[in-house]
Amino acid sequence: MNAPTSMDLAARSLRSVWHPCTQMRRHEDMPPIAVARGHGPWLYDADGRRYFDAISSWWVNLFGHTNARINRALVDQLERLEHAMLAGFTHEPVVALSEKLSALTGHALGRCFYASDGASAVEIALKMSVHAWRNAGHGAKTEFICVAGGYHGETLGALGVTDTALFRAPYESMLRPAHIAASPDARHALPGEGAAEVAARALADMERLLQERHGQVAAVIVEPLVQCAAGMAMHDAAYVAGLRALCDAYGAHLIADEIAVGCGRSGSFFACEQAGVWPDFLCLSKGISGGYLPLSLVMTQEYVYQAFYDDDVRRGFLHSHSYTGNPLACRAALETLAIFEDEQVLERNRGLAQAMERALQPLAQDARIARPRRTGMIWACDARLDDPADAGAFSRRFAQEAARRELLLRPIGNTLYLMPPYILGEEDVQWLAARVHEVFDTVMEAA
Ligand SMILES: *Cc1c(COP(=O)(O)O)cnc(C)c1O
Fold this sequence. Notes:
Layout: H1 6-16, E1 35-39, E2 42-45, E3 50-53, H2 56-59, H3 68-80, H4 92-104, E4 111-115, H5 118-135, E5 143-147, H6 156-160, H7 165-168, E6 179-181, H8 195-213, E7 217-222, E8 226-227, E9 233-234, H9 237-250, E10 253-257, E11 281-284, E12 296-300, H10 302-308, H11 327-342, H12 345-359, H13 361-364, E13 369-375, E14 378-383, H14 391-404, E15 407-408, E16 415-418, H15 426-446
Parallel strand pairs: 3-15, 5-6, 5-7, 7-10, 10-11
Antiparallel strand pairs: 1-2, 2-3, 4-12, 8-9, 11-12, 13-14, 14-16
């Protein structure tokens, strides 16, 4: 029997699979691509066509597909232990991973609580914050402040602190509203202003909210340095340092959602390092398993842990997920951290990110482009469209044209961005930059 073709699989998929983040009717024009295998930055469909994964498969893949080291580690782990419950039991991968991550924060965030996806990590941080305040005798502190345009996931608690109208609207009646503070997005700079001035204004707005509501506010949640889903909105690190100071002054926890920007994406292993501060809670997911397996965690400080440590079971943090601390996922994460160390990835990425920026200079200088920007291994710019209402159509046309030219690249509205795996060579960078520009030319000429 012949292997199914990409078209066969796409047709079957559309009869049985409900795809995420998709108006399924749109697939009438553009069927899903059936991926058969992957290697390095490349994905190959069932017909052998290739696609360069320029967005790391939704920002998760750090060291390429079917990475030899992570594969070997997982095969070894499979033969030892695939899974065991983490209540009442423990295992080496989860212990070693927690120790390693704690060490990466200089043991400032020495306690790791595990889940499987990013939204769950956000839920855990929100619940831990409220419960810690309650255990400390501050039961009125149950509200949250989030940042305009921020994204923290799609489960109800996470969506409650997410400011994306499109994702929220149908469920508004189920959500507990959060306070929304002004965004430090450097693109909001007025004439003569820089990122620092925008950050200062956003901090002033945050202070206004904390002044009014500090008796009720449990935590401020932020995506440090880059609000990714908002369209790679980048801000000054001083904003994060300023938030830390405000949270200390007004008695609120600081939750750093590093699900997208963590694991080296921002240029440092944790984005918060660039602000020189640690949050009370730090959420990790996406890249932590190298893009192999669902894994998320919340790292927190010893004083938070101590607020739950008691003879009374009700003061404990009783949250759980079936696959908490899955050994395979933890082993993939451990190997990911080992690659960072052995291959000096953060240093190497500095050169790679600069090479990317240089190669993208012609596009950055294109008159149809605005606000080219970069933080670590995230490069972004905004297409100038005659009518902003065309952003959705631009994004779809771009993704379609990119796929025709061997490129997996899906703009967010009119924001075109690259978030590639950390394994590109000089040739990959040149090829990628040229292809992106070609696709952009084609899409803009057709508009
Ligand atoms: C992706 C993302 C999440 C949600 O993670 P899921 O694994 O998709 O639930 C939360 N916060 C940020 C900043 C993200 O980028």
